[in-house]
Amino acid sequence: MTTTRSARVPSGLLRTLALVGALAAPAAAASDALKPPAFHGTREAPAWLSLRLGGATPGSHGKSKAEPEVGEPTWVRLNLSLTATWRRYCARPGVESCGEYDRLPEEDQLGDTSDFTSSYPYLGLALEAEVLPLARNTSSVLRGLGLKLGAQRAFSSSDVTLTGDGGQTPVREVSATDTAFTAQALYRFYFRFGTTRPQQGYVGARAGIQTRAFDVETSADNPLSGTHRVFPSVALDLSVPLFASVRLGASGGLLLSPKPGHSPDADGGRRALEVRDFGTSVSSFGWSAELGVTGDIWGPFGYDVAWRLAHFKDRFSGAGTLTGWDDGGAAEETYSSLHVGVIATY
Question: Which of 19-28, 82-91, 202-211 has the lowest mean pLDDT?
């Protein structure tokens, strides 16, 4: 009996193990079907996987060509503008400024004074050109080095009065022209704005020569002479992108010793009267400022709207030929201009 019972135990155990193995086989097969294939060593991913992840073609290492940045520097920039300019001029004897004279009691306001105010704006044209020959060389520190040239001409008529010890002369209408030239070297440092589509702005500096000439008609009853100035100048510029098609620009400059009576053309000594009437010598100082917006219209064309100021202050010493100018005096001249133009770039 013992032998027969011992033979039955192994037989029942074998049947149990066989049944468990049969049930586990389908589950193992299903698990193997769901398990992803493993990548070993340096095996590359399938081509369809790299296309979905980076959008690049095989062999491009996931890199795609970047879009051009908005506001990138260009080789040439031309700006043709319509201008409207207003001019104010005053001259007062024996003081440091026109305001100081006007604050004096009436009994102390002695000598000839001059006042000039534009009745209407001087309408004209302005053409500016900027050339940066290395602008497209992004690896060069000289990419922002260039040249700025400009010319402006405007015409109008204005009312002129002359006040002296004998009273004030009647208002006279005088035709005049306003002319300006600029030749400056410039350097700009460009910086990037934004991450989705980068835009470029810049800070820069300019230095060179400028002229400003205000010519009035020559006639016997014209009490006022013009002013002619040739002077060195320096300026700082800033351009900041606001939107994809709008950039804010600002600049401020110093006009160094812009003495009147100087002209780039030969005048036979007539310009010397601009000093001789008020004294024997003159020292001058000036400043300029500009604020505006520029942007793109279509392709290489854009727009520019700017407000510009230029202020000159002259301090005369010595005796002049006008009445009351025994010990010099002061004169002040201000130009306010609105520029609206079209830009072409290359």
Answer: 19-28
Tell which phi-psi region holds residue 108, choosing left (phi > 0), alpha (psi between -120 and 50) or beta: alpha
Residue keyed to tokens 């049947």: 15
With contact defined as beta carbons under 8 Å apart, do 202 and 191 qualify?
A: yes
With beta carbons less than 8 A apart as the criterion, state whether 125 and 161 touch: no
DSSP state of 137: -
**pLDDT grade, residue 62 (50/70/90)?**
very low
The pTM for the full model equals 0.75
Bridge partners (DSSP) of residue 191 are: 201
Rounded to the nearest integer, the mean pLDDT of the chain is 80
CB 244 within 8 A of CB 196: no
Task: Count other Cβ atoms within 10 Å, centred on residue 316.
Answer: 26
Pick the closest to residue 66 from 194, 243, 198, 191 (CA basis). Answer: 198
Strand segments, DSSP code E, in the chain are 76-93, 113-117, 122-131, 145-164, 167-168, 172-193, 199-216, 227-243, 246-256, 281-298, 301-317, 329-345
The one-letter code for the residue type at 166 is G
User: In sequence order, which residues have a C-beta less than 8 Å from that of residue 311 and are 6 or more positions away?
Assistant: 286, 287, 288, 332, 333, 334, 335
